[in-house]
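thought: fold this chain, then report.
action: predict
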Amino acid sequence: MTHAVPHLVNRLVIDTEDSFDDVRRRYESLVPAIDFAELTEVVGTGDLAALQAYIAAHTP
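observation:
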C-alpha cells in the first residue's frame, strides 16, 4: 500500500555565483567518505577515545 505523509521541511537557500554542479563538487570534496560498517564497529565498542581517534583520522 502506498500513501503520502505530509512533512514540513526548512530549505536552505545559498546565494552563490557557482553552478549547482560546482557547489556540489566542492561540498563533496569537503565531506569525508565514511565506511559505515567500520564506524558502526567503532561505535559498538563503547570506547569514546577510539571513536574520537576514528573521527580525527577520517575528517579534514
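thought: worth noting. The two ends are 44 Å apart (CA to CA).
final: C-alpha cells above.
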